[in-house]
Design goal:
By secondary structure, the protein is mainly alpha-helical. The protein has helices at 4-24, 34-44, 63-75, 79-98, 105-116, 124-127, 129-149, 154-171, 176-191, 210-233, 248-266, 273-293, 301-317.
Length: 318
């Protein structure tokens, strides 16, 4: 039975989502630019298989444009409104998938604010493909967690997890980074099992069955084949960069520039006051984050495992 506090909580969540939609969606964002226009135009003029990636690119999968085009064709609706709604529905799905790993209403509401109202420095994350990619990744993580907790439907949920992992990499090449990190983190956790049962799954037995091994191999090969096929199908024109990875000198000067920016932000340099507020707010939040998630009374091992993964993924991003 729902409490009055639950009602206010979901009203608050709904308010945050609607406020974000009328602030940052394609239809209402005041700084609508060519990147946003590309999503709307492709949603209207969409053709498979040549439009499997954004026009003239071999990256940036058109998952949301493909779905939006279906509804535009079916209902003859406004392309900009339809593309906006589909974009936000994907974000909402990823957001609610994150509820699986956060139990308290306060932190769920904090996630809503963070998810739909990122700092002004990162506002492009919610507008462009970054948000779609991470939402798909969160859905994949949710199904992966369900595959461990619901043994009767293990392979079904595992298949859904692999499917959304592939979609996450297709939508944005960047998705391969958290996917690879998850694989390494999962492998390490299984092979180096914690005796206390914390931050662990069900051990090596989970992957020992032949159907699961075959299913996993099949999805990995299929995903790699799909990405390879999609990239070679596109009419790739101009790349942002065709250079090799950074050399030691370039890495050194990049780190030097980053350290200088951080030092100016931490010292509240008058030209970077807003940056300083952001840096200190993130630092304070991270401290509270650590104190909350390292509480010894936590007993739900799957949730602890994925919280550990998110913490490690956050650190790897720096």
């Amino acid at each position: 039975m729902y409490k009055t506090s639950d009602l206010f909580f979901y009203i608050g969540i709904t308010g945050v989502i609607l406020f974000s939609f009328f602030s940052f969606s394609y239809a209402y964002y005041p700084f609508f630019n060519s990147d946003s226009a590309l999503s709307v135009l492709m949603a209207y003029h969409y053709h498979l298989p040549e439009d499997i990636y954004c026009w003239g690119q071999n990256r940036g999968g058109t998952f949301e444009m493909m779905i939006a085009h279906f509804f535009i064709s079916l209902f003859h609706s406004s392309p900009v409104i339809t593309a906006s709604i589909i974009h936000y529905l994907i974000l909402i799905a990823g957001f609610f998938a994150g509820f699986h790993f956060i139990r308290k209403s306060f932190y769920r509401f904090a996630l809503a604010v963070l998810w739909f109202f990122p700092s002004g420095f990162f506002i492009e994350i919610i507008i462009y493909q970054f948000s779609v990619q991470f939402s798909l990744f969160m859905i994949a993580i949710f199904f992966l967690s369900k595959s461990f907790s619901v043994s009767a439907k293990k392979n079904f949920f595992l298949s859904l997890s692999f499917l959304f992992m592939i979609l996450n990499v297709w939508v944005l090449d960047l998705g391969i980074i958290p996917t690879t990190f998850l694989f390494l983190f999962l492998s390490t956790t299984i092979l180096v099992k914690n005796n206390k049962g914390r931050a662990t799954l069900q051990g090596i037995k989970y992957f020992s069955s032949k159907p699961t091994l075959f299913l996993s191999a099949l999805w990995i090969v299929s995903g790699a084949a799909f990405i390879y096929w999609a990239k070679h199908l596109t009419n790739y024109t101009i790349g942002y960069s065709e250079t090799s990875p950074n050399n030691p000198s370039e890495i050194y000067f990049s780190l030097l520039s980053i350290s200088k920016s951080f030092s100016e932000a931490f010292l509240f340099h008058r030209k970077f006051f807003s940056d300083s507020m952001l840096v200190y707010s993130v630092a304070i939040f991270f401290v509270f984050y650590l104190f909350y998630f390292i509480k010894p009374k936590q007993t739900y091992s799957l949730v602890i495992f994925f919280r550990s993964f998110f913490s490690g993924n956050l650190c790897s991003g720096f």
